[in-house]
Amino acid sequence: MTFPADSQAAIAYLRSTSAIRERCGIVFAAAEAGQAPHFTLHKDRLPETARYVARVIRDNYPTLAIPYHARWRHFAAGGRDRWGALAPRLEGRSSDEIGRVRVDLAVTSVLLDAGAGETWLYREMATGDRFSRSEGLAVASFDMFAAGAFSSDGGKPLRADAAALRGFDEAALAAGFQVTADNPLVGLAGRAALMRRLGEALAADRELFGETARIGNLFDYLVRRARNGALAATEILDAVLRGFSSIWPGREVIDGVNLGDVWRHSAIRTADRTDGLVPFHKLSQWLSYSLVEPLEDAGLRVTGLDQLTGLPEYRNGGLFIDSGVLVPRDAGLLSVRQAVGAEPIVEWRALTVVLLDRIADLVRAELGLTPADFPLAKILEGGTWSAGRRLARERRPGGMPPITLDSDGTVF
To answer: Is 317 helix (H, G, I), strand (E, B) or coil?
Structure first.
């Protein structure tokens, strides 16, 4: 293993997808040796789990024409093309401006996408339909965006900028998300604070977000990073981590730099500044996946999607617990609410990252597809996320994940 020599190198390492896979791989190796402190690993259950995922994929997408795992899927909840309905408001705008608007929308919505809790619902005024969980958060944030909630310019509501976000308060989010005493949303205050810190981050980096400190200017930055019409997926993640890592609360830091979705596990032992640390960058990678389509629709080719990792969240992770691939050593883990930084949760997430890579190969074999035809971003969408949700619904009322998390609205 190569150790980062100084703080700057350590930060760069922990922001890389190679670090995610390497550190999660160390935890996985401990589980393979029967030495992981919180879970036992049952690899013999993987083939049957892969067959289950393949069946879910065929149910969801019989022709195997699977889109990327991205926020845009949730914007179509209930079979309604909300982006298509919004598009006429952009008539006459340039393709670049449409790209900026889509980036404005994707970023604000993804950053509000942490778990909603067991009971929260959103009623869409246009249809009367009710949505919960990720779909509800997507539709609620879409409606807020369409109403100009993230723009400081009343004449240009379809944008998100620092001037609006810096003053974003809990009451505005509660109103937009229809939160009441009878309809509580997990992490409401944390989400509102995240939006305010997002505003500060936009104002702090003019290269990424321009003189107007607008999220959508990230589109222009990424276009400039392309070479011969191609942009590496890791370039998207690099920009996301650079632009937004400072917004996460109460996280690990190195020399004052917020590391974001990085946590501690006792299996990691190194002789440098990264000792004990396991990076995941789940929301940042979810956001990176969600920026692929706006960029591709603008004419770029996004390459190397499988350099990004699977997303270690409760649907993908729940799949492996509910299918018996991962078994808690202490059964009480499934009945006691867990903090997101607790070592059992860090271990669960690390094992999930590696298992998603392992099951991807098995699912491709089941479907007769190659990695080029069926990248991880499509397996997640088709696939593991939906299978995790389906198993949860079969096993628990309301489809709750197998582990209950004490979320602040900024991780899951």
So the answer is: helix
Given this model, what pLDDT does residue 361 score? 96
Q: Is 141 left (phi over 0), alpha (psi -120 to 50) or beta?
A: alpha
Taking every pair of C-alpha atoms in the chain, what is the biggest distance, in angstroms?
61
- Quick: pLDDT tens for 192-248: 999 999 999 999 999 999 999 999 999 999 999 999 999 999 999 999 999 998 898
Average of per-residue pLDDT across 336-353: 95
Local structure of residue 382 (DSSP, 8 states): I
- Could you tell me which of 86, 84, 96, 88 has the C-alpha nearest to residue 299? 96
Tokens of residue 76, six digits: 């179509």
261 touches 24 (CB < 8 A)? no
Q: Name the phi and psi angles at 23, rounded to 5.
A: -70, -40
Nearest residue to 282 (alpha-carbon basis) of 241, 339, 221, 322: 241
Q: Where are the beta strands (DSSP E) in 47-188?
A: 122-123, 130-131
Cβ(247)–Cβ(193) below 8 Å? no
What is the token pair recorded at 327? 């078994």
Instruction: Please check whether residue 111 is in contact with residue 194, taking contact to mean a CB–CB distance below 8 angstroms.
Output: yes
- Residues 281, 287: contact at Cβ < 8 Å? no
Rounded distance between C-alpha atoms, residue 412 and residue 399, angstroms = 16
The average pLDDT across 394-408 equals 86
- In degrees, rounded to 5, the angle at the alpha carbon of residue 249 between the alpha carbons of residues 244 and 250 is 130
Cβ(240)–Cβ(188) below 8 Å = no
Phi, psi (degrees; rounded to nearest 5) at 81: -85, 85
The per-residue pLDDT for range 375-389, each reduced to its tens digit, is 999 999 999 999 999
Q: What is the pTM of this model?
A: 0.91
Q: What is the DSSP letter of 161?
A: B
End-to-end Cα spacing for the chain: 30
**Inter-residue contact 367 to 63 (CB < 8 Å):** no
Inter-axis angle of helices 282-297 and 217-225, nearest 10:
80
**Are residues 89 and 151 in contact, defined by beta-carbon separation less than 8 angstroms?**
no
CA–CA dist 334, 328 (Å, integer): 8
Query: In the Cβ-directed half-sphere of 355, how many Cα atoms lie within 13 Å?
Result: 34
Backbone torsion region of residue 82, taken as left when φ is above 0, otherwise alpha when ψ lies between -120 and 50, otherwise beta: alpha
Token couple for 197: 């810190």
pLDDT of residue 406: 82
Is there a contact between 282 and 276 (Cβ–Cβ < 8 Å)? no
